[in-house]
Amino acid sequence: MALVYKICPRGLWREAEALGRFTGAPVDHADGFIHFSTAEQVAETAARHFSGQDDLLLVAIEGDDLGPALRFEPSRGGALFPHLYGDLPLSAVRSVTDMPLGPEGRHVFPAEIPQA
């Protein structure tokens, strides 16, 4: 399985680091699972749900490390999005990268993330 991604406010991620696991953002708690995106989905997720927000981090997670708690389920227009039913163990995290806003107000992603 490939990497999956979580967009997270820096303060919330720092709380996860102190706790030793990520229990989710408010929207995750409300929905009963932690929302992730694939590399092909994450730029649209940022534009749709985090437009103009700064001080965000892009957390890359090894999907294989999450086992059966990670499920791909239909969402926007039937696209399959990764959802984690449970806490995210920090041992599954492969990288944490800043997501600065670019000159046009869109988030800047690492080179391996397809840009729309």
Please specify the SSE layout and strand pairing.
Blueprint (H helix, E strand, L loop, with lengths): L2 E7 H10 L1 E2 L3 H6 L2 E2 L6 H8 L6 E7 L7 E5 L5 E5 L3 E2 L3 E6 L18
- Pick out the low-confidence regions: none
Instruction: Output the number of helix runs.
Output: 3
Oligomer: single chain
CATH superfamily grouping? Protein of unknown function DUF952
User: What's the number of structural domains?
Assistant: 1
Q: Which structural class should the secondary elements be placed in?
A: alpha+beta
Number of strands: 8
Largest sheet, in brief, is: 3 strands, antiparallel
Which topology does CATH recognise?
Answer: ADP-ribosylation fold
User: Alpha-carbon distance between the termini?
Assistant: 23 Å
Which series of helices and strands comes N to C? EHEHEHEEEEE
Percentage of residues in helical conformation: 10-25%
Q: What would CATH call the class?
A: Alpha Beta
What is the residue-mean pLDDT, rounded to a whole number? 93
Q: Any guess at the CATH architecture?
A: Alpha-Beta Barrel
Physical arrangement of strands within the biggest beta sheet: 1-4-8
Approximate strand percentage: 25-35%
Give Rg in angstroms.
Answer: 13 Å
- Specify the overall morphology: globular
